[in-house]
């Protein structure tokens, strides 16, 4: 991958070619991945800091239960932009499984695929306690700097508020599971 030279992204990521290892992005990923990481490492992290430990990349109920058992302060349902593994599940499709698995023991945050306020609404309805946005912010930054980021956040807020109003939800706490139907539920209803 060779990232395009975009205004406002200077300093975030080197785009110079590394002829020995492909792009610098690939070289960076190879240097930072540690295949020896395991659940015991959470215990070590907790022993060296008083900061809350959040775990990102949980896509199954089984991993969510394990994360809660080892004492994480929160779970981020994320497939890392689906860049790591082709055909990985979309985060919205696994969110509810993770939420049900932890049974409120730890907060569950949603990260992935958010492009509209309706995406935020759906994630909240499926049990996320917060919704993270990444790419839209980067897109706004690349297009118009700080002003672009502010525009993206305002657009998402406006779309979420419109969706809430059209769904009869005067506040975020009024968004519930009854406001969404999953693809599996749609297919089941057709049978």
From TrEMBL:
Any one GO molecular function term: FMN binding
Keyword Transmembrane: no
Positions of the FMN hydroxy acid dehydrogenase domain: 1-185
SUPFAM superfamilies xref list: FMN-linked oxidoreductases
Main location group: other
Cellular component, GO annotation: peroxisome
Localization of this protein: Peroxisome
Gene3D superfamilies hit by this protein: Aldolase class I
A Pfam family this chain is assigned to: FMN_dh
Similarity-based family: Belongs to the FMN-dependent alpha-hydroxy acid dehydrogenase family.
Name of the protein: (S)-2-hydroxy-acid oxidase
Higher taxonomy: Eukaryota, Viridiplantae, Streptophyta, Embryophyta, Tracheophyta
């Amino acid at each position: 991958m060779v990232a395009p030279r975009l205004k406002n992204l200077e300093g975030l990521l080197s785009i110079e070619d590394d002829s020995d290892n492909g792009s610098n992005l690939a070289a960076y990923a190879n240097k930072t991945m540690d295949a020896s990481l395991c659940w015991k490492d959470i215990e070590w992290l907790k022993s060296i800091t008083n900061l809350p430990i959040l775990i990102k990349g949980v896509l199954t109920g089984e991993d969510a239960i394990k994360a809660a058992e080892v004492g994480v302060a929160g779970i981020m349902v994320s497939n890392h932009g689906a860049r790591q593994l082709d055909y990985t599940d979309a985060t919205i499709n696994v969110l509810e499984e993770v939420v049900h698995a932890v049974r409120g023991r730890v907060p569950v945050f949603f990260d992935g695929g958010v492009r509209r306020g309706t995406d935020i609404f759906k994630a909240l309805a499926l049990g996320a306690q917060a919704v993270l946005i990444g790419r839209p912010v980067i897109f706004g930054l690349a297009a118009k700097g700080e002003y672009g980021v502010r525009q993206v956040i305002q657009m998402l807020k406006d779309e979420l508020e419109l969706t809430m109003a059209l769904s009869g939800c005067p506040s975020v706490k009024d968004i519930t599971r009854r406001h969404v139907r999953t693809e599996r539920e749609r297919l089941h209803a057709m049978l």
